[in-house]
Amino acid sequence: HKGIVVLAATNRPDSLDPALLRPGRFDRRIPVELPDLVGREAILKLHANDVKMEPGIDFGFVARTTPGASGADLANIINEAALRAVRMGRSRVTQEDITESVDVVIAGEKKKSTVLNDHEKEVVAYHETGHAIVAAVQDGKTPVSKITIVPRTMGALGYVMQVPEEEKYLNSKAELHDMIVGLLGGRAAEEIVFDTVTTGASNDIKQATNEARKMVTRFGMSDRIGTINYDDDSDEVFIGRDLAHTKTMSEAVAGEIDAEVKTIITDCYAKAKKLIEENIDVLHACAGLLLEKERITRDEFEALF
Ligand code: ZN
Predict the structure, then answer these.
(1) What's the 4 CA to ligand 1 centre distance in angstroms?
(2) pLDDT digit string (tens) for 107-161?
(3) 262 Cα–ligand 1 center, Å
(4) Phi, psi of 93 (to 5 degrees)
């Protein structure tokens, strides 16, 4: 009857019986969100305590390369780094072990069985370079820290790692535009160089479309639609919540939203192509280097400019 605290966790607080939540029952809610930059650094350091580390590891840098990672992901990064050190026959974890394990946790292990033919490899190299160039010429706030075309077990054929200089909580309309242009940079480069497009950009297109739709329906960034929310209450998105969502707009408005989303994507794609065409020499040089080395560092990439 005394000194007992009952805790419970759920992903679906929206679907709980209100009787459970009355005062004296489960009456206090503690939302557990993804850790921010400071939180990620602290979590990494905490898990690093259990592992022998080389002195002078830059945990702040690792935290900056892992936006969106959960506490479990970060624990896993340290664990993978320790396994890598053991595999290499070392008794201490180095910065490189951690950097490499970020790749593993974010994108999956290097996949040995995926053998791309030469043409596919070339397409991937140009695709990733396209992302990197657009990111580099648009703004200096999220410099490209690495480009690779090593296939990973989680499906990516290559990727560009960008490390933001600071964590952002507010994005301007222009910044969201830049982000969409960056997402479309891969497809744009493919079209410019090969005059045809591949299925490799499907995830980019999905993300770009989601961002554009949020600009229109959630952030009030479309003059035509105005500052009206046409999005469901997405601050409380839980698994399966979409089922309960009811439409609160007319067919006409839904059509206008689609048209606005299309306008944003079309404009951004045109801008991505323009930026890449303006830097076509860098595109060819970078893709060539990538084909040769499969992996380009920030310094090598910046030197190409
Ligand atoms: Zn891409």
Answers:
(1) 51
(2) 776 766 666 788 888 999 999 999 999 999 987 677 888 888 877 766 677 888 8
(3) 19
(4) -85, 135
- 176 vs 172: CA distance, rounded Å: 6
Q: What is the pLDDT of residue 155?
A: 65
For 54, the 3-state DSSP assignment is coil
Three-state secondary structure call for residue 93:
strand
300: which residues sit within 8 A by CB, 6+ positions away?
289
Question: Dihedral through CA 89, CA 93, CA 94, CA 97, nearest 10?
Answer: 80
Active site residues: 128
Q: What is the pLDDT of residue 247?
A: 58
pLDDT at position 22 is 86
Q: Does the global pTM surpass 0.90?
A: no
Which residues are CB-neighbours of 174 under 8 A, at least 6 positions away? Answer: none
Predicted pLDDT at 111: 67
- Look at phi and psi of residue 99 and say left if phi exceeds 0, alpha if psi is from -120 to 50, else beta: alpha
In the numeric block, the tokens 């600009």 are attached to 215
Rounded Cα–Cα distance for residues 262 and 106 (Å): 30
Q: So what's the pLDDT on residue 237? A: 47
Count of residues in the chain: 305
d(CA 79, ligand 1 centre) in Å: 28
Give the chain's residues under pLDDT 70: 109, 111-115, 140, 153-155, 232-248
DSSP-based three-state secondary structure for 161: strand
Residue found by looking up tokens 């933001």 in the block: 164
Give residue 53 CA to ligand 1 midpoint distance, Å: 34
> How remote is the CA of residue 15 from the centroid of ligand 1, in Å?
37
Q: For residue 160, what are the β-bridge partners?
A: 147
